[in-house]
Amino acid sequence: MKFAVLRFPGSNCDQDCLRTLQDTFGAHAEPVWHKETSVAGYDVIILPGGFSFGDYLRCGAIARYSPVMAAVREAAGRGTPVLGICNGFQILCESGLLPGALVRNRGLHFICRQVHLRLENTTSPFTRAGRAGQVLRVPIAHGEGCYLADEETLDRLENEGRVAFRYCLPDGSVAPEGNPNGSLRHIAGILNGPGNVLGLMPHPERACEERLGSTDGQLVFASLLESALTAVS
Amino acid sequence: MKDPTITPEIIAKHGITPDEYARIQGILGRDPNFTELGIFSVMWSEHCSYKNSRPELKKFPTSGPRILVKAGEENAGVLDVGDGWAVAFKIESHNHPSAVEPFQGAATGVGGIIRDIFTMGARPIFLLDSLRFGPIEQGAPGAAANRHLLAGVVSGIAHYGNCIGLPTVGGETWFDETYAGNPLVNVFCLGVLRHDQIARGAARGCGNPVFYVGAETGRDGLAGAAFASRELTEESREDRPAVQVGDPFREKLLLEACLELLASGCVAGIQDMGAAGLTCSTCETASRGGTGIDVDLDLVPKRETGMTPYEILLSESQERMLVIVHRGQEDRVREIFEKWDLPHACIGHVTDDGIMRIRAGDRVVAEIPAADLTDQAPVYQREAAEWTPPQEVDISTVPAVDLTAALPRLLAHPTLAGKRWIWEQYDHMVRNGAVVGPGSDAAVFYARECDKFLAASVDGNGLVSRLDPREGGRRCVAEAARNLACAGAVPLGATDNLNFGNPHKPEIFRQLRDSVEGMAEACRAFDTPVTGGNVSLYNESPAGPIDPTPVVAMVGIIEEETHITRQSFRRAGDSVWLLGDRAAGLDASQFLLILHGRKEGRPPQTDLEAEVVLHQAVRDAIRDGLVRSAHDCAEGGIAVALAECCLSGDGLVGAEIFLPDDERRDDESLFHEAPGRVLVTIDPADEEAFHDLVSLCRVPVRKLGTTGGTELVIHLRTQTWRWPVAGLFETWDGALGALMGTVAEPLAAH
């Protein structure tokens, strides 16, 4: 199984993703420059966090025009798992691969801290190693992570089981105190219709080693590796 | 546009004295033209030449077996960390720009120090910051302006650091009226590299092409180095063009391109364009290389039209580098710059005549012997005033206060309060290395590149330095070393930031001299050479000079991952011990300042010999696996230190403590700030081994009590004070956010 970690100018979590995949999971992962026009041969595509193109216009708004994004859209259409983390989630929303938008945090400040997430979907290739309602401790680091969509879209996401992660309290209950950025319905991560594109604001790659305070983020990568095994067998 | 004629007024406006002008005439053998005068004025400013501080800086120890690049040789010093790996680190100030425009001033300060590190060929991996502001409490004079400065500086650091992807993993922030209108913004950056990757800022190889790469040159930051070498006045706002505008995205591209370029083997020399921009980078590279340099300003990428040679040379536009390339490698170099979408141009070449020759097309606009510009800069031995040691505080003049109320008051003061409101705005987790992040004595960072655990701490104490500069110098170095010891680290080296007022005043020069001597003495004691640093003088507002504020950042290494130790109590049932039992009065304490408004007294003196032994004992106990937590007792005394142990972990832990009768008044026993004390917690099963070990080191040691419960309880003689830790946490953690009017997002974890 081969992972592509896209590298846009201004990506800054690309190395963290690569090292996590290589060192923690022994997976085959390679950086892919944004000017590439093909992602053929990769089984999973990761859009890492950072500030692509400085996020100067609107987070992710310029990166969606990078040459590689046409190939990503095509691969997503074929069912290849595509994972957007933080800025990667913003790029996926700007690209139209995921609905809704990520806007300035409710408190107006950039926030970096450990948060708790409730796992809401356990059927996607990114979450199947978990159990419903499981609480994960994973960090966030963003200034614009407040998820917005119209009511109709939100209802559809809920009804179709496409809310993958929700911000919650340590006991798994959902409450405003557990929501760091004001996201509607406490949404931290969502899936596309077919379930092969996931965008989430928290950083699972920062929660894969005991020394960093949590290994709960392993669930996402372990699920992807497990999905690959299932696909092969 | 015609250059103005040189008049005595124009010379004075450039901050050049008549003696210095005569020296310039001597070097050139003629009068300088206007452009040349501008070049001399920035190169001979304090910021670039250290003309007022150089004799003092020579007092620092700068050698040692680990030193690979010494202080002053290059943009930053480089230290060996073993296995062929090294670290490059430095601290730098951006005080003046931040006073005028806090967001951009702080942001470009971050950008500048990061460039210093990757110019050395190192991959920057983390930042620390040391900040000082005026009072921000409701009703304090100038509080609104000070809050504006705090908010601006923090978001400026966050903007730049977060975007470029470098974690700010630690730091310190103090608030005092002395910094009103003149905040201090000192930022530290550390990078890692292999020994064979050290890059040099020298123009070598006659005929080698000189490339300009990075942002286009504009009129921003004109002569900022000269601006930073003046006192701030009411009119400083008009100097706003001297503040640059930062573009962290551009710098991220520049960083990646430069590291890729250095790995390609095409580079003969590299230098960032920081203070004094193109001027400084061209003459310094030529001077270091013992060569000359010939540059055509018409070829420099510009973002504005009609710029004069004077403006192009003195611009401090950010995110620019000068790269000297091996002849024949030009195409490979251009390819890398183009991959990263960076403006670039070959603007000249290295010569062998020792002259910095600047042309605008065919016209020569400046011609100066490069080495003279750097080496012949004036050096002044300033006059120092006599020192009158301060009086000790007469405790009978200090009214007794309710100590149950005093502790929460101290913990709510911005200087002592939790700094989560600040560090949550920084992405302190990017690069997956912050094993111990902000809010412990020292930060511990896992440098994956070289598989090493590095510890770093930044410290300064303006209050102590004001009352006794020599002790202030010793104190900040000893505290940094103690913080490293508490984390389980062996200190390797230090970098200093000297923040002082106008050195022409004998009183200020004395502070500078004594502080440096105190720091140097302590650095020798801990065997931590100074690898470089920064001098920021003229920190004066209309209200007067700041309290002298030397700041030191120290870097250490932790040999085994299992030795990494945090300051917070880990669990209930551990026993609490105090190492380095000392008594003292309330002199120079935060208690006396915050509760009684008195900046007074004779600071308790640092005993460097005892410190060295104490730190070794703490490390030995940690290495033997006996220590569960370790915390330095510093500002606020033992009561505040105990509270911090209860409050700063992932969960709250109470404690019951029996303080020894030190025959002092209660307030003194709880809040004095004698240095050289460390609180540790020990598993009860290890008490005997621990006691044997530290007794063998001849360190005074005493068991104080046990962790656990929901209260911090302190007994002293017949007195008992109780504080529920949940209440203390709310006070300590929420104070800064409440004062800033935007309550920090609540923490769900507690």
Describe the secondary-structure layout.
The complex is a heterodimer of chains A (233) and B (750).
Chain A: E1 2-7, H1 14-24, E2 28-33, E3 44-47, H2 67-77, E4 82-85, H3 87-95, E5 101-103, E6 111-119, E7 135-142, E8 146-148, H4 151-159, E9 163-168, E10 187-191, E11 197-200, H5 218-232
Parallel strand pairs in A: 1-2, 1-3, 3-4, 4-11
Antiparallel strand pairs in A: 5-8, 6-7, 6-9, 9-10, 10-11
Chain B: H1 8-13, H2 18-28, H3 34-43, H4 46-49, H5 54-57, E1 67-69, E2 77-82, E3 85-93, H6 95-100, H7 102-118, E4 123-133, H8 143-164, E5 168-175, E6 184-194, E7 209-214, H9 224-227, H10 248-264, E8 267-272, H11 277-289, E9 292-296, H12 309-314, E10 320-325, H13 330-339, E11 344-351, E12 355-360, E13 363-369, H14 370-375, H15 403-412, H16 420-423, E14 434-436, E15 443-447, E16 452-459, H17 462-467, H18 469-487, E17 490-499, H19 506-526, E18 530-536, E19 540-541, E20 544-545, E21 549-558, E22 575-579, H20 590-596, H21 608-623, E23 627-632, H22 637-647, E24 655-659, H23 666-671, E25 678-682, H24 687-696, E26 701-707, E27 711-716, E28 719-724, H25 725-739
Parallel strand pairs in B: 4-5, 9-12, 17-18, 24-27
Antiparallel strand pairs in B: 1-2, 2-3, 3-6, 4-6, 7-10, 7-11, 8-10, 9-11, 12-13, 14-15, 15-16, 16-21, 17-21, 19-20, 22-25, 22-26, 23-25, 24-26, 27-28
How many helices of chain B?
A: 25
Strand order in space, largest sheet of chain B: 8-10-7-11-9-12-13
Show the largest interface: A-B, 39 and 36 residues
Coarse structural class of chain B: alpha+beta
What is the H-and-E element order of chain A? EHEEHEHEEEEHEEEH
**Between the first and last Cα atoms of chain A, what is the distance in angstroms?**
13 Å
What's the number of extended β-strand segments of chain B?
28
Assign the CATH architecture of one domain in chain B: Alpha-Beta Complex
Strand content of chain B: 15-25%
Total domains of chain A: 1
Radius of gyration of chain B: 26 Å
CATH topology heading of one domain in chain B: Phosphoribosyl-aminoimidazole Synthetase, Chain A, domain 2
